[in-house]
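A further point concerns the way the authors explain their paired sequence and structure data. For illustration, here is how one protein appears when written out as sequence plus structure tokens:
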Amino acid sequence: MNNLLLCGFMGCGKTTVGKRLSKTLSMEYIDLDAEIESEAGLPIPELFRLYGEPYFRDLEHEALSKLSHRISCVVSTGGGAMTFQRNRMAVSPEDLVIFLDASFPVCYQRIQGSDRPLLRTNTLEEFQALYENRRTAYEQAASLVVNADASPQQVEAAVLEALQAAGFPHK
């Protein structure tokens, strides 16, 4: 197994849990959105504003494709990354995709006040519909599904338990 990729909706805990897992498992941590911002030289909200979502999704695909050549990383993908077939195909068959499955109310509460482009441009009903539509793609992409409604410590413990059950060696 090369890498662990965390997927799920905005606010499910990919970044927080990913950083914890990388320390526990002694693996490098990579935030896909941070990689995109570094490559583009702009924050994601600016990329959306200046160039639109399709341009951002192309950058996201390029960044994910580059990660397929890395090993021993915990990768937090963006909320939409694994909803695209081309991105799911770019993931190495040696990588393990973990869906952090948090309920919509938990995700929504966690991202209140953030500067997320899709949060700013959608009504609550549209945002919830986006959540529901993406869940299927996350499930299709995932090798493992872990409930992410709990605290970061509890979610990390659940991921580690799922990894152990799947035969992934860790401390």
Notes: The domain at 3-165 is CATH 3.40.50.300 (Rossmann fold).
